[in-house]
Amino acid sequence: MSKFKRTLITTALPYANGPIHIGHLAGVYVPADIYARYLRLKKEDVIMIGGSDEHGVPITIKAKNEGVTPQDIVDRYHEIIKESFQKLGISFDVYSRTSSEIHHETASEFFRKLYETGKLIEKTSEQYFDEENKQFLADRYIIGTCPKCGFEKAYGDQCESCGTSLSPTELINPTSTLSGNQPVLKETKHWYLPLDQYEPWLREWILEGHKEWKPNVYGQVKSWIDGGLQPRAVTRDLDWGVPVPVEGTEGKVLYVWFDAPIGYISATKELTPEWETYWKDPETRMLHFIGKDNIVFHCIIFPAMLKAEGTYNVPENVPANEFLNLENDKISTSRNWAVWLHEYLEEFPGKEDVLKYVLTANAPETKDNDFTWKDFQARNNNELVAVLGNFVNRALVLTQKYYEGVVPAAGELSDFDKETLASISTIKADVEKSLDNFRIREALKNAMDLARLGNKYLADEEPWKVIKTDPERVKTILNVCLQVTANLTICLEPFLPFSMDKLRGFLNLEKMDWERLGDAALLPVGHKVNTPELLFEKIEDSVIETQLQKLENTKKANEMATAKAAPAKENIEFDDFAKMDVRAGTVIECEKVAKTKKLLKLTIDTGIDKRTVVSGIAEYYQPEDLIGKQVSILVNLAPKSLKGIESQGMILCAENADGTLSIVSPDKKVKNGSEIR
């Protein structure tokens, strides 16, 4: 690290067609923020770059479905994402967007340089074209039958039923989602980055030169390179994105995978006029914090782009994480199976650090991991509350109780005192080693060891007992505890910034740099500390049950959305149907049937008479809500005794896929007794 004067941290640009969820946070933004805060505490020159990725087909599809423009979509989600990051305390130096003018200029200049220096190859190919809409079709605008499994609504790039990667021409009976017509093949010209030409350089640069990269990153890159690289299109036919800056290319834009990483450069330009220092000075190291779905782009494709351009640094490390699952199921935005950041911030006010702590403690660093609400609760209650919060509270409460909040002078230190204070520097070294090697989860555990150290020291020394026999000794004990507490504000600052700010308020202490960590005299004798509050609070079972129920509701909604109707029953003759006499009637009285959960007793004006019907709909309707409601009633059903009540007919209901019942009613008021045919 000593050969670098500064660090440029980039974070994967979230796609602006939906909010941020915990998978994004665990994979990219929380570890990047921790690392950036750590370097800032060390007084290093570091900037952290972020921004929204606002081009590409999914955004145009969402806009079309909602009847708005793509700009409307990205404006909406960019603001939601940016505000969520700010509230969580993700400390970007700049958070930009790829629809900005500075980005369009930067991406266009980058393409022009590659184009004019002959680094791109031009190829003509046949692609599907919608003749009615007069446009070439992106893969996601084409559906057809999967040649592998027969699924009839496979996309042009992938079958979501069997997971097979496809090309549009492999689909059986392809159809344009724009017009519903069968598209035709038509020639189109595009430019490609010849990745195969960079294969020898990539092999030497990564496989030989960066064996220290995380095994999940190195392994995926090696697999791609060993499999042989192919030219990759950098332009496509679409009307949303950065226009190709070459004459005669109307209707073509830069491929989103090409323009998005250039967003790191344009965002740095937006931040500082000294942007080239961070991108081109060999004494700057660049780190890409990303998820595993972006490894190939940031370790092979973007470096090849930078190498082709010729004046930029390539990344020094790409500490990518794997995926985070939710309650043993893959996070899915389309299925709404996620914990959304903006919703979490509303439902758990003041608990920003709790989420960051849990996501870090359970980070999917080298393999996929699972977030569960029960684990979230346990880590908060058993670690943040019971270890960190408990130690801090006891140390400060005892100081208030015995010394009116004034830091007492330490007497002669025992071996245990010295050992405890010396351990702070050992913990500091452990945290540094872990962070310097991008083992963020391990670093948090090491940092929390300082709270565990303080807790053990306090429990072993028992000042509340010693005060009765040796009050002078208690001064030393509490001085040691307070010095550990003050050191915590530095050690845990990268991980729990809101909480450490709160703790500094308790201690009446200014923020200190990393170099002060390990100092056993951060709080001078006579320093006045403030009356503490609870640093963390327990999360009750009811709070967790609410979140679990929310997910259960999502699961049911997904099942409903994908449920297929029961097959039709056997055919009947018209005469059989004609035997049923179904009339419109109005409920005039309704009450629950005693000692039952499901039954209601209704009195219905059928237009023929007033009759009693017992119906199993009590779980779905309140009696008072049904009075005055028109229903459809089978009036010639033979009477039947239910719970001692003679039921003279049947109310017609529709049974949903989840078993819930809805009364079938006329859509407008009709005369009671009207026949339903």
UniProtKB/TrEMBL annotation:
Its cofactor is Zn(2+). Keywords: Aminoacyl-tRNA synthetase, ATP-binding, Cytoplasm, Ligase, Metal-binding, Nucleotide-binding, Protein biosynthesis, RNA-binding, tRNA-binding, Zinc. One of its GO terms (biological process) is methionyl-tRNA aminoacylation. Its EC number is 6.1.1.10. PROSITE patterns: AA_TRNA_LIGASE_I, TRBD. CDD domains: Anticodon_Ia_Met, MetRS_core, tRNA_bind_EcMetRS_like. It catalyses: tRNA(Met) + L-methionine + ATP = L-methionyl-tRNA(Met) + AMP + diphosphate. Signal peptide: none annotated. Its main location: cytoplasm. Residues 576-677 form the TRNA-binding domain. It is found in: Cytoplasm. NCBIfam families: metG, metG_C_term, PRK00133.1. PANTHER family: METHIONINE--TRNA LIGASE (PTHR45765), METHIONINE--TRNA LIGASE, CYTOPLASMIC (PTHR45765:SF1). Belongs to the class-I aminoacyl-tRNA synthetase family. MetG type 1 subfamily. This is Methionine--tRNA ligase. It comes from Maribellus luteus.
